[in-house]
């Protein structure tokens, strides 16, 4: 009976969260007690606010100034723990009433042994491999005793069963008396422990994967920060070089320019730091909860410990719901930082080093065939295809490299790609033809155009692979199926000529000189944008917004702006960039999958980062 009482007391001295003997026990307002270190971890996991939720009953306790040490200590429990530590442990193997003091504890036998019993125990052949702990190490807290569960109602009975509904261990007698009604699901304690260990391993594996995911995200942010920092350093170096070549009177101007560079780049770095901080906090959150769940050797036995364990496991499961990081935002921020550049004053009388500008790193590429471009569209693999009316499709990478020429003998009037990668070609004879990825012409012919409809037609494809052909003179759009045959329907353009056509979600973007119209697929105009005297050329961005190039052909200037799906202005991307004015008044705008903007004249391809 005394040994059973000791086991009960020992269990009562265990913290429900860490399952070890209480260390600096603190009382919550709901009267439940936990180790101070465990409460610190729980407070940190829930955002370090001043309200702490009890893992057992879920009641909230206010933590003054987020300092757990200011919570009341459980003095009675601390005293009891000290008394238990100071109490001698007597041999539980001796039969005499005057039992000697124990010097070791056998984990496998579950007995405290005095010196004679320990010597005898060591000689038993079957007990040589038993784990024996010195009492000095147990008292000092260096090692933990593995206790055997005994039923509190029937101290001589082991708790060999576990009721999943009641969430508690029970002996066989308790099962018969209390857990046989409908709704009680009783399994062997060993089975529960095995499932519990497996659950902990699964949770740890998920936590490790999630932690690794966010660590990669943080590494990526560091990489973007380094690139932005390199831009800042390069700008500063350029400014310093110009300063050294100028007179001392320019010192003030120099310092102002450096501050402006820092202002423009440090804002980007600050936003990247915030993203990194958020990811690191999630890693800390995952690590703390995962350690509380997985770094334990004991199995929770009583109801409080089980409740605390369930709460912590639930918190970890909630943490898994955090969406994986999106690399797009730091990449865009990095591009914003890298666009800062120093433009030095050259050949100017005014004193000054120069100014800080948002540089547009352009690539200016001459097309292989002069004055021939008639179509441009992104390829399925993320490159850019330029169709030439004199024959062929020229393929360019995002860095401006001319990579290949295909369909050299086909005179391109319009160009597109089906979802499976096949080419859709509108040739100069107004035939609509399909080609394979290997550039083999397919035996699929779509209805061609009449002579009165042939003036500067082009095409676009929607997400359902329907093909739209715009007819200037007839002021209409015909829709074809890639299966071949005549047009399946027509869309009338009421009073305007559809010069260029672009598919956009469930709409079409129509270009007509100085006006852009967004129409639905029945021809109803939803939104309209007009810039008198300028020519407008649209494209769909990778962010699913609308890009519009405004061209002043007579002076050879192009500006590119971003708009919403309602044609409301968002921001300027390129302002009055000087181009080589082409002979033909015909332009195209597209965006690479990697973000670069391609603007094509009849002679040249310009790529804006």
From TrEMBL:
<feature type="domain" description="B box-type">
    <location>
        <begin position="86"/>
        <end position="135"/>
    </location>
</feature>
<keyword id="KW-0175">Coiled coil</keyword>
<dbReference type="GO" id="GO:0005654">
    <property type="term" value="C:nucleoplasm"/>
</dbReference>
<dbReference type="InterPro" id="IPR047153">
    <property type="entry name" value="TRIM45/56/19-like"/>
</dbReference>
<keyword id="KW-0863">Zinc-finger</keyword>
<dbReference type="InterPro" id="IPR013083">
    <property type="entry name" value="Znf_RING/FYVE/PHD"/>
</dbReference>
<dbReference type="InterPro" id="IPR017907">
    <property type="entry name" value="Znf_RING_CS"/>
</dbReference>
<dbReference type="GO" id="GO:0008270">
    <property type="term" value="F:zinc ion binding"/>
</dbReference>
<protein>
    <submittedName>
        <fullName>Uncharacterized protein</fullName>
    </submittedName>
</protein>
<dbReference type="InterPro" id="IPR011044">
    <property type="entry name" value="Quino_amine_DH_bsu"/>
</dbReference>
<keyword id="KW-0862">Zinc</keyword>
<keyword id="KW-0479">Metal-binding</keyword>
<dbReference type="Pfam" id="PF13445">
    <property type="entry name" value="zf-RING_UBOX"/>
</dbReference>
<dbReference type="InterPro" id="IPR001841">
    <property type="entry name" value="Znf_RING"/>
</dbReference>
<dbReference type="InterPro" id="IPR027370">
    <property type="entry name" value="Znf-RING_euk"/>
</dbReference>
<dbReference type="GO" id="GO:0061630">
    <property type="term" value="F:ubiquitin protein ligase activity"/>
</dbReference>
<dbReference type="InterPro" id="IPR000315">
    <property type="entry name" value="Znf_B-box"/>
</dbReference>
<feature type="domain" description="RING-type">
    <location>
        <begin position="15"/>
        <end position="58"/>
    </location>
</feature>
<feature type="domain" description="B box-type">
    <location>
        <begin position="146"/>
        <end position="189"/>
    </location>
</feature>
<dbReference type="InterPro" id="IPR011042">
    <property type="entry name" value="6-blade_b-propeller_TolB-like"/>
</dbReference>
<keyword id="KW-0597">Phosphoprotein</keyword>
<feature type="coiled-coil region">
    <location>
        <begin position="240"/>
        <end position="278"/>
    </location>
</feature>
């Amino acid at each position: 009976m005394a040994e059973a009482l000791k086991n009960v007391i020992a269990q009562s001295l265990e913290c429900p969260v860490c399952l070890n003997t209480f260390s600096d026990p603190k009382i919550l307002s709901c009267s439940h007690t936990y180790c101070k270190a465990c409460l610190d971890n729980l407070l940190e996991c829930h955002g370090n606010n001043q309200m702490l939720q009890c893992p057992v009953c879920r009641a909230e306790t206010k933590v003054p100034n987020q300092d757990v040490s200011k919570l009341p200590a459980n003095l009675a429990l601390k005293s009891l723990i000290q008394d238990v530590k100071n109490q001698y442990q007597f041999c539980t193997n001796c039969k005499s009433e005057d039992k000697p003091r124990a010097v070791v504890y056998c984990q496998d036998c579950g007995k405290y042994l005095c010196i004679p019993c320990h010597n005898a125990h060591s000689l038993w052949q079957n007990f040589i491999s038993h784990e024996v702990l010195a009492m000095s190490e147990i008292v000092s807290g260096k090692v933990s005793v593995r206790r055997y569960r005994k039923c509190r109602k029937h101290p001589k009975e082991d708790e060999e069963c576990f009721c999943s509904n009641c969430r508690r261990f029970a002996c066989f007698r308790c099962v018969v008396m209390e857990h046989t009604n409908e709704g009680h699901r009783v399994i062997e304690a060993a089975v529960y422990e095995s499932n519990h260990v497996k659950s902990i391993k699964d949770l740890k594996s998920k936590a490790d994967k999630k932690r690794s995911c966010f660590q990669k995200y943080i590494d990526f942010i560091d990489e973007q920060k380094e690139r932005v920092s390199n831009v800042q350093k390069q700008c500063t170096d350029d400014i310093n070089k110009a300063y050294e070549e100028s007179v001392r009177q320019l010192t003030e101007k120099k310092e102002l320019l450096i501050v402006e560079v820092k202002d423009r780049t440090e804002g980007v770095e600050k936003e990247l730091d915030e993203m990194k901080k958020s990811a690191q906090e999630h890693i800390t959150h995952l690590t703390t909860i995962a350690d509380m769940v997985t770094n334990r050797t004991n199995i929770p036995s009583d109801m409080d410990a089980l409740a605390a364990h369930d709460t912590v496991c639930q918190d970890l499961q909630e943490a898994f719901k955090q969406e994986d990081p999106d690399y797009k935002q730091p990449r865009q921020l990095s591009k914003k930082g890298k666009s800062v550049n120093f433009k030095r004053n050259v050949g100017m009388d005014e004193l000054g080093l120069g100014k800080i500008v948002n540089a547009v790193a352009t690539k200016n590429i001459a097309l292989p065939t002069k004055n021939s471009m008639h179509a441009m569209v992104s390829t399925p693999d993320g490159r850019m295809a330029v169709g030439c009316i004199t024959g062929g499709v020229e393929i360019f990478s995002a860095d401006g490299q001319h990579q290949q020429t295909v369909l050299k003998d086909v005179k391109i009037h319009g160009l597109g790609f089906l979802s499976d990668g096949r080419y859709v070609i509108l040739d100069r004879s107004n035939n609509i033809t399909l080609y394979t990825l290997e550039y083999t012409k397919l035996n699929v012919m779509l209805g061609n155009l009449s002579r009165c409809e042939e003036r500067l037609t082009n095409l676009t494809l929607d997400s359902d692979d329907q093909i739209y052909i715009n007819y200037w003179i007839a002021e209409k759009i015909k829709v074809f199926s890639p299966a071949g045959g005549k047009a399946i329907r027509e869309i009338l353009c009421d009073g305007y000529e559809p010069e260029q056509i672009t598919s956009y979600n469930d709409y079409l973007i129509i270009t007509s000189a100085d006006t852009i119209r967004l129409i639905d697929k029945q021809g109803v105009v939803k939104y309209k944008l007009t810039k008198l005297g300028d020519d407008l050329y649209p494209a769909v961005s990778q962010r699913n917004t609308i890009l519009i190039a405004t061209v002043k052909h007579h002076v050879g200037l192009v500006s590119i702006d971003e708009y919403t799906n309602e044609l409301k202005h968002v921001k300027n991307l390129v302002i009055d960039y000087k181009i080589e004015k082409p002979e033909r008044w015909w332009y195209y705008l597209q965006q690479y999958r990697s973000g670069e903007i391609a603007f094509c004249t009849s002679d040249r391809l310009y790529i804006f980062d």
